[in-house]
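Case study 2.
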Amino acid sequence: MKKTLLVIFITLFSCLYLFSQNEVITEEPPSLRPLLVDTTDCCVDCAMEMQFQSIEKALANKENVHCLVLSFSSPKYTAIPKEVAQFQHLTCLDISFNRVAVIPEEILQCQQLYCLDLSGNHYLQDLPKFLKQLPNLKVIRLLDMTLWSSAKKQQLKKDFEGIYLEFE
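Prediction:
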């Protein structure tokens, strides 16, 4: 519980900081500033408390879901829930540190998705190419993907040109 609250606090603080900077970076940021990408749309929604931390609560408020945080879930998710397709206004999906091995094509229904956090999902073997079809996807966070080689990470950066892949 404490870890979850800490992650949420850090994420919210980062979002608020980024929003206050109002900075847009069009190329990969220097390694000392990896979080400074334009997440203004998501940050505004998170700051306005449009953030949900359970799929059940989110489903009860479909029209209000902008940010869905399912990180460190118990039990762990092994796939991104297909129900995310019901959230038409979803801009941020954080499903980090679960056991996600499958990203269903239903995620393509989330046309507003801007940031997808898949960090720490060690069962995930690859990123499906269909993610490139999401018109607003700009950031995929892949921190703590220790089983992925440097060569694989470099290839993914080429394959997902135009989307910032954050590995560190």
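The chain has one domain: 2-166.
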